Amino acid sequence: MAKEQDKMTGKEMEQMLCSILFNEVKERIQILRDYGISESQIASLFYIEKPLVRLTISKNYGIFLGDKRVEIHMEPLVKAVYLLFLAHPEGIPFKHLPDYREELTEIYVKLKPYGLSAKAIQSIEDVTNPLLNSINEKCARIRKVLLSLFDDNTAEYYYIKGKRGNAKVITLPRELINWE
Predict the structure, then answer these.
(1) Are 58 and 64 spatial neighbours (Cβ–Cβ below 8 Å)?
(2) Beta strand 92-93 with 167-170: parallel, antiparallel or unpaired?
(3) 27-59: per-residue pLDDT in tens?
(4) Distance, CA of 124 to CA of 134 (rounded, Å)
(5) Domain count of the chain?
(6) Same domain, yes or no, for 60 and 13?
(7) Domain membership flag for residue 115
């Protein structure tokens, strides 16, 4: 074997060592499974946590990420919903959305200062009606935008989430949210 190793190139030796390590990791993962460790716990071993970046809301309601101020683009009503949830760190249960209709309208007017059309008013009413699916559609759009910027583990701090029947929240630590 020693003579064979002498004949191996550095690349071949590297590939052989990687293969040995890979098999060892697979065996150890199986041992963890045998001890009842869940797949999500095992998967978490391979996740390298990335630091969360600051979210800045400008005076004219632009939403920016990090020191480089990468702008997050959303349609006005979707952005208004996002800003509403950012303004309520305690979260908002969807069934209480009618109580927030006026506040959402005020935010929307700031984003669209030329007045509200009948269609816009109807859209606000729809998104604050918990019997309709409009709020879920807006949250899905927010999630999609954020997933285009972050991996899922990081994005979940920035989008609106929560268990059914409970308040929906944005879990980003408040010290990382800057309102200009």
Answers:
(1) yes
(2) antiparallel
(3) 999 999 999 999 888 887 887 667 899 999 999
(4) 9
(5) 2
(6) no
(7) yes
- For 95-143, the pLDDT digits (tens) are 999 999 999 999 999 998 788 899 999 999 999 999 999 999 999 999 9
Domain that holds residue 28: 2-44
| DSSP designation for 73 | P
The answer on 132 and 78 residing in a single domain is yes
- Residue 152 makes CB contacts below 8 A (sequence gap 6+) with none
Cβ(166)–Cβ(174) below 8 Å: no
- Give CA separation, 156 vs 27, 44, 62, 103, in Å: 32, 15, 20, 25
- Euclidean distance between CA atoms 38 and 72, whole angstroms: 35
Q: Which two tokens stand for residue 170?
A: 């944005």
Residues 59 and 31 in one domain: no
pTM of the model: 0.75
